[in-house]
Design brief:
With about 500 residues, this protein is an alpha/beta fold. It has 18 helices and 18 strands. Helix 10 packs across helix 11. The structure holds 5'-O-[(L-methionyl)-sulphamoyl]adenosine (MSP).
């Protein structure tokens, strides 16, 4: 199986992490964990974007030297990764020497190929987005001009190097046509294509009005445009410019996970830079939607920023991980509400999944001496249960390969509902007196089904599913997808079950 490379955006260190950052990384983490369980070699990268005017200004506001400031804020993103259980294989910072070397090498390659020229930039710039905007994209309110993102823009005029982006317009359009999976979901693909069709101008890729960035080789009065610097992180971590590096085998990236606000940079500038430098372009850019908080846009000025650490503290890590990917179709905007989180936690995790495990395992304790009953024949009455169990890995994988995390979880939950129906109809508790063999068979079948549910849910809820697999008596080295085809040995001793999820009173939500 080919190795797989998954990335998150690198996060600006102008402020502490919030739910949006946790969300992009969570999705990436789930896919990375899934592919490892499927036996693939995975490289999962995340990190921090530390240069540019926005970060420089945040450091000034904090009264700190930019390096000391970024050291501090970058650490809070590493802490977030630990708290959220992210399994990233590397954490890149754009202030690292390896990254500056990669940016320098890429720049020199572009110069060598005649893709960069010196000129002067005059136009609108939004520091908040670190982006240039055309006059037709702006709206004016109270004498201030704003970008479509809502960020205020200012007029900039300074000497600048340019990248010949306009030259790549037709190549880009052809690439989108011939690689229909390159940008997803479809709404974003259409948006990018119409933007490119409307005409691309050469891109200003250096600045001279501040110094916090990677110096342009041979012209240190210029620092590189922060997006050129930032996007390069994806090849830095794979070893660029050393194409003999161990990690270069991972390039090109399989999926760049991004939010919808930064799709333009990833789906237009990035493939153009790479193609112009003779480097393979990534396979896919997936842009997810944005969260609102109880119906309101999330913003610092409204004071409604959601702190992922506080959420985890309150509801537990795995319910939060589950909720974020379950509640809203990935790719669409969604609303965060505590009520909705509590309903998912109580209804799906505690009641449907947790109770199923608890009921079945308690019966095995009481009626089978805590020992797994032997593998049993499947009867017609068991067919519906196994119809979903036997196809579960393939069905969930097909959805995850489309980054349809919500559908993947719906598929697992539909299977869990099937099992709840099965236990009610089969009523193994009543079989004890009437048909001991059938009771054993039903409990064994339920055990097999739950092992499958817990195995496929591991990427979403690693901690709780490890506990569930412990309770199911599944040895630690038999928790990948391949192991599902080998039944657990008859007579495996199962520990006494304990509740997997804690219900929350709705009133407290
Ligand atoms: N530094 C750039 C990315 C460079 S990648 C080469 C950047 N950083 S960011 O910190 O501002 O944003 C990172 C991610 O957080 C983006 O994918 C963005 O969409 C996401 N989110 C920020 N607020 C969000 C919500 N309210 N909801 C969901 N995601 C949001 O952009």
């Amino acid at each position: 199986m080919p190795p797989i490379y998954l990335t998150t955006p690198i996060y600006y260190v102008n402020d502490k992490p919030h739910i949006g950052h946790a969300y992009t990384s969570l999705a990436t983490d789930v896919l990375a964990r899934w592919k490892r369980l499927a036996g693939q070699e995975v490289f999962f990268l995340t990190g921090t974007d530390e240069h540019g005017q926005k970060v420089e200004k945040a450091a000034q506001d904090a009264g700190m030297d930019p390096q000391a400031f970024t050291d501090k804020v970058s650490q809070s993103f590493r802490d977030l990764a630990v708290t959220m259980g992210f399994s990233n294989d590397d954490f890149i910072r754009t202030t690292e020497a390896r990254h500056k070397a990669a940016c320098t090498a890429l720049w020199e390659e572009l110069v060598k190929r005649g893709e960069i020229y010196l000129g002067a930039y005059e136009g609108w710039y939004a520091v908040r987005d670190e982006a240039f905007y055309g006059p037709d994209e702006l709206v004016e309110r109270d004498g201030v001009k704003y970008a479509p993102s809502g960020a205020p823009v200012a007029w900039v005029k300074e000497p600048s190097y340019f990248f010949r982006l306009s030259k790549w317009q037709d190549w880009l359009l052809n690439h989108y046509e011939t690689h229909p999976d390159f940008i997803a979901p479809a709404s974003r693909r259409n948006e990018v294509m119409s933007f490119v069709k409307s005409g691309l101008q050469d891109l200003s890729i250096s600045r001279t009005s501040f110094t916090w960035g990677v110096k342009v080789p041979g012209d240190p009065a210029h620092v590189m445009y922060v997006w050129l610097d930032a996007l390069t992180n994806y090849i830095t971590a794979a070893g660029y410019p050393d194409v003999n590096a161990e990690r270069w085998k991972f390039w090109p990236a399989d999926v760049h996970f991004v939010g919808k606000d930064i799709v333009r940079f990833h789906a237009i500038y990035w493939p153009a830079f790479l193609e112009a430098a003779g480097i393979a372009v990534p396979r896919r850019v997936y842009a997810h939607g944005w969260w609102t908080n109880e119906g309101q846009k999330i913003s610092k000025s409204l004071g409604n920023v959601i702190d992922p650490l506080a959420l985890v503290e309150e509801y537990g890590l795995d319910p939060v991980r589950y909720f974020l990917l379950r509640e809203v179709p990935f790719g669409q905007d969604g609303d965060f509400s505590r009520g909705a989180l509590v309903r998912r936690l109580n209804g799906e995790l505690a009641d449907a999944l947790g109770n199923l495990a608890n009921r079945t395992l308690s019966l095995i304790q009481r009626n089978c001496g805590g020992v797994l009953p032997p593998a049993a024949e499947r009867t017609e009455a068991d067919a519906a249960l196994f119809a979903s169990v036997d196809t579960l890995v393939a069905a969930v994988e097909a959805q995850l390969d489309q980054q349809a995390f919500h559908l993947a979880l719906e598929t697992v939950m539909a299977a869990v509902r099937e099992a709840n129906g099965y236990i009610t109809v089969q009523a193994p508790w009543a079989l004890k007196k009437t048909d001991l063999n059938r009771m054993n068979a039903v409990l064994r079948h339920l055990h097999t089904a739950m092992r499958a549910y817990a195995t496929v849910l591991q990427p979403f809820m690693p901690g709780t599913m490890a506990l569930m697999l412990d309770q199911l008596g599944v040895p630690a080295d038999q928790r990948d997808f391949a192991a599902l085809s080998t039944p657990l040995a008859e007579g495996t001793a199962l520990p006494p079950p304990a509740p997997l999820f804690r219900k929350i009173e709705e009133a407290k939500a």
